[in-house]
Design goal:
There is one protein chain. By secondary structure, the protein is mostly helical. Helix content is 61%, strand content 0%. It is built from seven helices and no strands. The protein is globular, with a radius of gyration of 20 Å.
Length: 180
């Protein structure tokens, strides 16, 4: 039994060339270790080759879905082993050349607001914002209907807006210096 018709090495090379960088960026946005994103991308394309008869014509959302499930499996395995899971921080995502207090404060605010959201809220926002997927494509990644994804996105945006507008609670109280 050979590969499905049209799903030969040429087909695989084409999807690899077209989507490898996007899958690599997906991993970089979620992992902090240097080799993790490349290893994730390799695993994703190994799954795509093994399951090539299941890969849809427009395959990027499917590849993101595989990436998401592979990461979830890694996180569960590490959590059950009692190890910390290195997840990328928003600071690592700062645009090169953006400097100054305003850029740092903005990143810190977004990071804090994102952390206050559930994993599912964070993922739908990342899929739409970072990976630039449509709602239908994000639904495919998440394994839900387009309507469900649209509702999740709407609610996640609302919760992110609320988290961003919530007053910051300083961890160390500020003291006024007495003048002499």
């Amino acid at each position: 039994m050979g590969p499905p018709p049209g799903r030969d090495e040429g087909w695989f090379t084409k999807i690899y060339d077209e989507h490898y960088q996007q899958i690599l960026r997906y991993g970089r946005r979620r992992l902090v270790d240097e080799d993790g994103p490349a290893e994730l991308a390799q695993e994703v394309f190994a799954v795509a080759w093994r399951r090539r008869d299941e890969v849809p014509e427009h395959c990027l959302p499917w590849l993101y879905g595989v990436s998401r499930r592979l990461l979830a499996n890694q996180w569960r395995a590490r959590r059950s082993a009692g190890r910390q899971v290195p997840i990328a921080e928003a600071d690592a995502l700062r645009v090169p050349g953006s400097a100054g207090a305003d850029a740092t404060l903005g990143v810190a605010d977004v990071r804090a607001a994102m952390r206050s959201l559930s994993d599912l809220d964070q993922e739908i926002l990342r899929l739409i914002g970072w990976e630039e997927l449509t709602v239908a494509e994000a639904a495919q990644v998440l394994g839900c209907s387009r309507t469900t994804a649209a509702v999740r996105l709407h609610r996640a945006r609302g919760r992110l807006t609320a988290a961003m507008s919530a007053p910051l609670t300083p961890s160390v109280p500020h003291r006024k210096l007495a003048r002499s």
